[in-house]
Amino acid sequence: MKKILSLSSLLILLVSFSTAFAADHKIVIHIDENDDKRMNLVLNNAANLNKYYQDKGDEALIEIVAYGPGLKMYTMNSPVKKRIASFEQNFDNISFKACANTHRKMSKKAGKTIKLLPEAKMVDSGAVHLVQRQEEGWSYLRP
Q1: Looking at the domain assignment, is residue 107 inside a domain?
Q2: CB 61 within 8 A of CB 20
Q3: How many CB atoms lie under 10 A from the CB of residue 126?
Q4: How many domains does the chain divide into?
Q5: 98, 66 in Cβ contact below 8 A?
Q6: pLDDT tens-digit profile of 96-119?
Q7: For residue 59, what are the domain limits?
Q8: Deepest in the core among 18, 74, 109, 133, taking most CB within 10 A?
Q9: Residue 125 belongs to a domain with what CATH number?
């Protein structure tokens, strides 16, 4: 039984890695401002990049990383909440990353845990994640 679980875990890991490495284009987009227009611009950029590469027959992997005031993009009262839900349903290659450092500080300041949208997946540090992605060869965009 242990052997089967180990093999299935390995297979899942290999599929995950192959999907990430199979992308022709890997783009990380940065948002650090609590501004409706900037948030919409980030989402527009992601959708436009996806369409451009898709029309060329290329695969693109896109991450939107929010930290600092930009983390408001992923809170339950986000002005782009509906668009993020739509992206999650329509784009399997666009993901949303939230800075755990910012989340912790926002929650402490509010005196309660700030609930984030289910589409947002936590990373330890948004800034570190951006640096790591660039070191891995991802293209960086800050609209």
Answers
A1: yes
A2: yes
A3: 25
A4: 1
A5: yes
A6: 999 999 999 999 999 999 999 999
A7: 24-141
A8: 74
A9: 3.40.1260.10
